[in-house]
Amino acid sequence: MATDRGSKLLVVDDDAGVRTFLRVSLEQEGFSVVEACDGPAALSLLSDDIDACITDLTMPYMDGIELASRARQIRQDLPVLIISGNYTSQYANRLTGFDCLQKPFARGEVVRRVRELIARPEEKPAGGIDRPDGRKGR
Asked: Is the per-residue pLDDT at 133 higher than 70?
């Protein structure tokens, strides 16, 4: 697994503005970024040289949880960060075992979380949601 400089990330979000924000923020930190607008497109881009996946939770065709699950069927060790501004009780049980970050988030926060994912790929994510107030919760 690569260190963060030069690590290749798959960023998946149906909102082009969010994808652009993430791509620019992560590329400024030395990451290489591949973008997809939905789950099926992301799965077609998933390869062995992808070091981590950052995906939105709510998207057409396939939500971020289904994408993360399918991606881990292909690459069991793939670190995944699920981002959303729409965490509701309907997702709470399905998010167990996934690292999550609630929108809105600062550039530095997403960069920090991605670095943590890449630095410890052999560990299972603790799960839980980092809220803008810094507390964990569901």
From this structure: no
pLDDT at 99 over 70: yes
What's the pLDDT tens digit per position in 82-95? 998 876 666 666 77
| Residue 130 β-bridge partners | 101, 136
Q: Compute CA distances 25 → 18, 32, 34, 93, whole Å.
A: 10, 11, 13, 30
Q: Is residue 3 one of the residues assigned to a domain?
A: no
Kindly report the CATH number assigned to the domain that includes residue 75: 3.40.50.2300
C-beta separation of 31 from 83 below 8 A: no
DSSP 124: P
Number of domains in the chain: 1
Distance in angstroms (rounded) separating the CA atoms of residues 40 and 25: 24
Domain that holds residue 58: 8-137
pTM above 0.85, yes or no: no
